[in-house]
């Protein structure tokens, strides 16, 4: 059997090395085109930054459904609701309310509110409502939804 030697690679001459350097796989043949592309990119980035600056920032809000429980069946629920709605805080908006029967003639006030998360916390809201000690026994959060 005759052995075949693998072909040997001849050393590259400087002229052949320059040929490989001339190949641009990304298509930037001209420096002027690169400058124009850079200017266009800068212009678009500037326009995007201006557009983003004009856009208002999103405010995180939550919808909370509160159960406000009275002491007994003789508590004036209209007075209780007016006390709760009298709480005015920055970032708090009161919504609809209804009276829900609990038992033995006692009804609780179920009231909806929308709060801005960074301004009004649930603890603060509960503290403010429970300050009306003559009307309010306790406050529970029935539902809490992010908007």
UniProtKB/TrEMBL annotation:
<dbReference type="InterPro" id="IPR036219">
    <property type="entry name" value="eEF-1beta-like_sf"/>
</dbReference>
<dbReference type="Pfam" id="PF00736">
    <property type="entry name" value="EF1_GNE"/>
</dbReference>
<dbReference type="InterPro" id="IPR049720">
    <property type="entry name" value="EF1B_bsu/dsu"/>
</dbReference>
<feature type="compositionally biased region" description="Acidic residues">
    <location>
        <begin position="15"/>
        <end position="35"/>
    </location>
</feature>
<feature type="domain" description="Translation elongation factor EF1B beta/delta subunit guanine nucleotide exchange">
    <location>
        <begin position="61"/>
        <end position="147"/>
    </location>
</feature>
<protein>
    <recommendedName>
        <fullName>Elongation factor 1-delta</fullName>
    </recommendedName>
</protein>
<keyword id="KW-0648">Protein biosynthesis</keyword>
<dbReference type="InterPro" id="IPR001326">
    <property type="entry name" value="Transl_elong_EF1B_B/D_CS"/>
</dbReference>
<comment type="similarity">
    <text>Belongs to the EF-1-beta/EF-1-delta family.</text>
</comment>
<dbReference type="InterPro" id="IPR014717">
    <property type="entry name" value="Transl_elong_EF1B/ribsomal_bS6"/>
</dbReference>
<dbReference type="InterPro" id="IPR014038">
    <property type="entry name" value="EF1B_bsu/dsu_GNE"/>
</dbReference>
<dbReference type="GO" id="GO:0003746">
    <property type="term" value="F:translation elongation factor activity"/>
</dbReference>
<keyword id="KW-0251">Elongation factor</keyword>
<dbReference type="InterPro" id="IPR018940">
    <property type="entry name" value="EF-1_beta_acid_region_euk"/>
</dbReference>
<feature type="domain" description="Elongation factor 1 beta central acidic region eukaryote">
    <location>
        <begin position="25"/>
        <end position="52"/>
    </location>
</feature>
<dbReference type="Pfam" id="PF10587">
    <property type="entry name" value="EF-1_beta_acid"/>
</dbReference>
<feature type="region of interest" description="Disordered">
    <location>
        <begin position="1"/>
        <end position="38"/>
    </location>
</feature>
């Amino acid at each position: 059997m005759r052995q075949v030697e693998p072909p040997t690679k001849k050393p590259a001459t400087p002229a052949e090395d320059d040929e490989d350097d001339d190949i641009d796989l990304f298509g930037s043949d001209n420096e002027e085109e690169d400058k124009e592309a850079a200017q266009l990119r800068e212009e678009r980035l500037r326009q995007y930054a201006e557009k983003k600056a004009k856009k208002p920032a999103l405010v995180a809000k939550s919808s909370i459904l509160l159960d406000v429980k009275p002491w007994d069946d003789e508590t004036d629920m209209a007075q209780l609701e007016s006390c709760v709605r009298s709480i005015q805080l920055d970032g708090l908006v009161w919504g609809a309310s209804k009276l829900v029967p609990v038992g033995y003639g006692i009804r609780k006030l179920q009231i909806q509110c929308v709060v801005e998360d960074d301004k009004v916390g649930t603890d603060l809201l509960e503290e403010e409502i429970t300050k009306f000690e003559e009307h309010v026994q306790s406050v529970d959060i029935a539902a809490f939804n992010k908007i």
